[in-house]
Amino acid sequence: MSAYANAILDNRQNTYGIKDKKSGVIAKIKGIYIKGDVLYFQLDLMNISAVDYDIDLFRFYISDEKKNKRTAVQENDLRPLYVAGNISKVKAKSNTTIVVALDKFTILDAKYLAVQIIEKNGGRHLLIKIRNRKIMRATSLPDFR
Prior knowledge:
Layout: H1 2-8, E1 19-22, E2 25-35, E3 38-47, E4 53-64, E5 75-78, E6 82-84, E7 89-90, E8 94-103, E9 111-119, E10 126-130, H2 132-136, E11 139-140
């Protein structure tokens, strides 16, 4: 699993349109890959501000699309199997790539996968929403020899 995750770190972007931006920090999904029973998500964090972005927490969960009044919101947390890359800090005027491995799953139409990145002692919290159709288009990884 670590060999695949580290190999994905340098891949080019093959998934577009999944991103969030807040106060000079941009988080986007560059690629979604699958090998066996493991999904790999390639995240790119760009800090174009003059202040370092200290990462406090990465959270992956499946959430309901619509939140009606008087209904309980269902959130299922997903625990990463493996994380490759720098997950502590993004220096000012730089970027970093992170690969997260999760167990294979699919999502109902009324739900989405949320990737939440929370800043330590700050307010630049990022939320990326990934729909099921993007996960179903995951690129299959070849076997290592």
